[in-house]
Amino acid sequence: MALIMKYIESINRYMDSHSDSRTKDWPMMSSPFPTLAVCLTYVYLVKVLGPRLMENRKPLHLQNMLVVYNALQVVFSAWLFYEIGVSGWLTGHYSFRCQPVDYSNNPRTLRMVHACWWYYFSKFTEFMDTIFFVLRKKTSQVTTLHVIHHGCMPMSVWFGVKFTPGGHSTFFGLLNTFVHIVMYTYYMFSAMGPQYQKYLWWKKYLTTLQMVQFILIMVHAFQLLFIDCNYPKAFVWWIGMHAVMFFFLFNEFYKAAYKNRLMKKNALLANGHAKPNGYCKSINAHDDLFMPQPAAETTTASTAKANGNGNATLSNGHANGLKNGYKPLPNGNAAAVANGSAHKTNGILLTNGFGNGSGGYATKLLDDVAQELTHRKTQK
């Protein structure tokens, strides 16, 4: 134990001797271990303790809290974007090609240093994203990508505030706060209820925006490996490799969430889950009958033999059962149905606009139904 404490003390001395003197006495800046402890606690809370505590509890309904939280995050992100921008990037005082760290006490420089610390602090507030998922028992949202992204960021930003508050690395914060303005706006509308779903069609483009962000950060960081700039190469690799890691993680998420979903949807449609060329609604007092003309084309898969035993072969389609108590087919015969849906009504099987059985066609369906109703009244 004494050896560990001695090792920690030596790390702190080394950091104090090489760190920025302007931030060394600021909250959480004296040592990396408090930040590391908070990050590890976060991971344990959302992956182990939280799900265990909520296992036998009902999910919490936090709609109003979520709306307020996301609105505050939008305001906070917008303020950070403004502060980082006017302190250098959006006023022409910073160069996108090479921007060394200014360690002076110039008012504009100190404004950027303070913005860096508040950006670091914002990474802790984002832990609430995952905590709300746990409280609402949305465990599917607590993905590896989500936890790694939120769990690593405070530690990563801590090094920047400790050693290089300002300069080239703050481009990351500029882009990230802009993305968070868009992201938390989406979350806010999503939390406001189903009536706002029509405004949220751009969800997948939000993931694309995040990936574009990481590409820009990679290019911006790694360019310093090929030009002469008074900026620490260690931080070039630190920022660049973080962007590479998050790009591939978000890319895997994008493929899993959108491309695979689209492929499954197309597969379902190909296997007969789409509407056939003709169909008949179940007959009720106020139902309408829609019977479009059948398509002329036929395929080998769309024909099958009926064996008279009440069984029908269905290929790439499905048959709905009897509707409203009408009798089954008299002889148990049914035409096989392919590539569509079939409805049995009054003992008649309708496929692509035709009905086979009882010697009638679909055009006589209404008459058959009327006769059946008359026959039932007579029996009564």
Automatic annotation (TrEMBL):
The keyword Membrane applies. The chain crosses the membrane at residues 33-50, 62-82, 117-135, 142-161, 173-193, 205-223, 235-254. It is a multi-pass membrane protein. It comes from the Eukaryota. InterPro entries: ELO_fam. Pfam families: ELO. GO terms for biological process: fatty acid elongation, monounsaturated fatty acid; fatty acid elongation, polyunsaturated fatty acid; fatty acid elongation, saturated fatty acid; sphingolipid biosynthetic process; very long-chain fatty acid biosynthetic process. GO terms for cellular component: endoplasmic reticulum membrane. The keyword Transcription does not apply. Belongs to the ELO family. This is Elongation of very long chain fatty acids protein. It comes from Drosophila virilis. The lineage of its organism: Eukaryota, Metazoa, Ecdysozoa, Arthropoda, Hexapoda.
